[in-house]
Amino acid sequence: MAEQPQEQASPPIQKRVQDSFDRQGLMTHLGARLTHIGPGRVHIVLPARAEVTQQHGYVHAGATSAIADSAGGYAALTLFDEDSEVLTVEYKINLLAPAAGEHLEAIGTVLKPGRTLTVCQLEVYGVQGDGARMLVANGQQTLIRVARPAQ
Amino acid sequence: MAEQPQEQASPPIQKRVQDSFDRQGLMTHLGARLTHIGPGRVHIVLPARAEVTQQHGYVHAGATSAIADSAGGYAALTLFDEDSEVLTVEYKINLLAPAAGEHLEAIGTVLKPGRTLTVCQLEVYGVQGDGARMLVANGQQTLIRVARPAQ
Amino acid sequence: MAEQPQEQASPPIQKRVQDSFDRQGLMTHLGARLTHIGPGRVHIVLPARAEVTQQHGYVHAGATSAIADSAGGYAALTLFDEDSEVLTVEYKINLLAPAAGEHLEAIGTVLKPGRTLTVCQLEVYGVQGDGARMLVANGQQTLIRVARPAQ
Amino acid sequence: MAEQPQEQASPPIQKRVQDSFDRQGLMTHLGARLTHIGPGRVHIVLPARAEVTQQHGYVHAGATSAIADSAGGYAALTLFDEDSEVLTVEYKINLLAPAAGEHLEAIGTVLKPGRTLTVCQLEVYGVQGDGARMLVANGQQTLIRVARPAQ
Questions:
Q1: Interface residue ranges in chain C relative to chain B, Cβ cutoff 8 Å
Q2: Which residues of C fall within a CB distance of 8 Å from A87?
Q3: Are D142 and B116 in contact (CB < 8 Å)?
Q4: Does the pLDDT at position A1 exceed 50?
Q5: A135 CA: distance to closest CA in chain B (Å)
Q6: Under a CB-based contact definition with an 8 Å cutoff, are residues B20 and B12 in contact?
Q7: Which superkingdom does the taxonomy of this entry point to (chains A, B, C, D) (predicted)?
């Protein structure tokens, strides 16, 4: 999936997503970074450091979910104009396998955009140093579009 | 809810839960701490620092979910013997209101224990400095009991 | 829970909910009926007939979910004026035990009302002929308020 | 999606799934029928009759969910031997659009099989008389494998 060429969002949209991401204290604190911003599709990578583990040394479900949630939210944001923000209404995620690997890659993909509500698919892969990938979590998320607060 | 006296788990169970929590790199990294370990019920508090925010300065849904998920997992763990571990199978969480406050308090409560699967209710409150509380997230979680790996 | 006296919604609201329920072909076809309409809380009873079973003779998860979904939707509807309708955005339900009994009782309760989105808790009990009750399903539902289509 | 040739499950597996389906009183009562039984993938069709509607004349979310849940359950069952049964642990479903059409087609697909737990993706399409298709619901389901009760 990461192999195929990925369509990029326009530079203004990429900038808007990146700027918002950079204001998320949690993403910086976890060490996560945006690696792809396409129309309706965003990737976030999280290196598997000790700071994001659960008690067995795998990445914590909370960290796995955090990057999945952000990837879905930004995937939705790419589809709206600059006066819009999106908020997570809810999500559901299955942890399919221990989140092992050198890093995790979360992929948020818009399944159904809408004027008010948008639904995204969430996938998280564990990626080994040699590039081997395994689906470790899969989810579904509902987001709501709101007017951007005046600065 | 926090006002009523809370039943405590036995000291060995409290120790087992605390030891496991202390091995969760993510909980330490986020600044979360266990504040109550009762039979089938665990509380986790997360101070609202800049390191756990989303782009608007509220606590990130990922951090909110992380403490909710851990609270549910440990609530289940209190019901099993020392040869058991629990893993999150899946959870669903609604973000009901901006996660504002001086700190968040996640409460995990076992709704239905089982030999294989256990279902927990997850609640997260935003707590102001004066003690005012507001439900900011509500969820439901499925866990599986597994044999503890030999040390 | 069914023992405590239940607050009733106002007669016009009760009529509005009952009229809408009566237009749901599925509820009639399943044999379900409204048994309580309170403010933010609705009960629906489903007799356990062969027509609603799965392959082992218990009530089918689909029938269990159908009455839970309707109970939540009508619980939300009691809180809005007559120009509003509610639609289910999504729900998640855990099937906790085989849905056995003489009938099922679904209880939908508004957890967080909102101008646009409302979140409900869903519970379904299996009720024996002697009144013994067991929680057989528990869920969480998101609804959206929309303007009622002109008649 | 329905256009591509579909791999069929072996005749004994097809028979086992069909026999179980035929014992589901609810599926018969709703008028649903199995239309494809492949390895890890099952389709169920539900004609849009008045008996399965909600108050606006669309198919009720409960009926939509019922066929989605059964499709996922049987998709999982195709992967196990005859001594196994599967039970739904939980599912989450988003209703993406009014469930309109001449009939609905639910597709259950195994996303992650497992010895104890299996996770399926659930999709429901509204299909018009001319074959036009629209995704009306999307979900995710967790199932547990259990030993088949002795007959």
A1: 92, 94, 96-97, 111-112, 119, 121, 135, 138-140, 142
A2: none
A3: no
A4: no
A5: 14
A6: no
A7: Bacteria
D143 φ/ψ angles, rounded to the nearest 5 degrees? -125, 155
Q: Taking a C-beta distance cutoff of 8 angstroms, is the pair A94, A64 a contact? A: no
- Whether B119 sits inside 8 A of C94 (CB atoms) is yes
Neighbours of D96 (CB within 10 A): 21
Phi and psi based region of residue A131 (left: phi greater than 0; alpha: psi -120 to 50; beta: remaining): left
CA dihedral C118, C139, D135, D106 (to 10 degrees): -160
Task: Tell me the residues of A at the D interface, defined by beta carbons under 8 Å apart.
Answer: 92, 94, 96-97, 111-112, 119, 121, 135, 138-140, 142
Which single residue is written with the structure tokens 């579904």? A140
**Residue D135: CB atoms within 10 Å:** 16
- pLDDT band per the 50, 70, 90 thresholds, residue C6: confident
* Shortest alpha-carbon distance between residue C33 and chain D (Å): 14
Domain ranges of chain B: 11-147
What residues contact residue D22 under an 8 Å CB cut-off, 6+ apart?
D28
Reported confidence tier of residue D150, pLDDT bands at 50, 70, 90: low
Fold of the B11-147 domain? Thiol Ester Dehydrase; Chain A (3.10.129)
Size of interface A-B (CB pairs under 8 A): 117
Chain B contacts to C (CB-CB under 8 A) = 92, 94, 96-97, 111-112, 119, 121, 135, 138-140, 142
Residue A146: Cβ within 10 Å count? 12
pLDDT, tens digit (0-9, with 9 covering 90-100), for C84-137: 999 999 999 999 999 989 999 999 999 999 999 999 999 999 999 999 999 999
Dihedral of CA atoms A85, A63, B57, B106 in degrees, nearest 10, equals: 110
Mutate to test the interface with A, among D124, D140, D143 (most CBs of A within 10 A): D140
DSSP state, B52? G
Give the model's pLDDT for residue C57.
Answer: 86
Residue A127: per-residue pLDDT: 97
Q: How far is C12 from chain A (nearest CA, A)?
A: 30
Q: How is chain D split among helix, strand and coil, in percent rounded to 5?
A: 25, 40, 35
**In DSSP terms, which residues pair with B46 in a beta bridge?**
B104
Best of B112, B123, B135, B142 to substitute, by most chain C Cβ atoms within 10 angstroms, is B112
Contacts of C139 in chain B (CB under 8 A): 140
Chain A residue closest to B88 (CA)? A95
Tell which phi-psi region holds residue B49, choosing left (phi > 0), alpha (psi between -120 and 50) or beta: beta
pLDDT of residue D77: 97
Could you tell me the sign of the dihedral formed by the alpha carbons of C72, D66, D138, B73, in that order?
positive
pLDDT in tens, C25-82: 999 999 999 999 999 999 999 999 999 998 888 999 999 999 999 999 999 999 999 9
Of A27, A50, A90, the CB nearest to B94: A90
What confidence tier does A56 reach under pLDDT thresholds 50, 70, 90? confident
Tell me the mean pLDDT in the region D116-127.
Answer: 98
Instruction: Enumerate the β-bridge partners of residue D125.
Output: D105, D135
Q: What are the structure tokens assigned to D59, written together? A: 């198919």
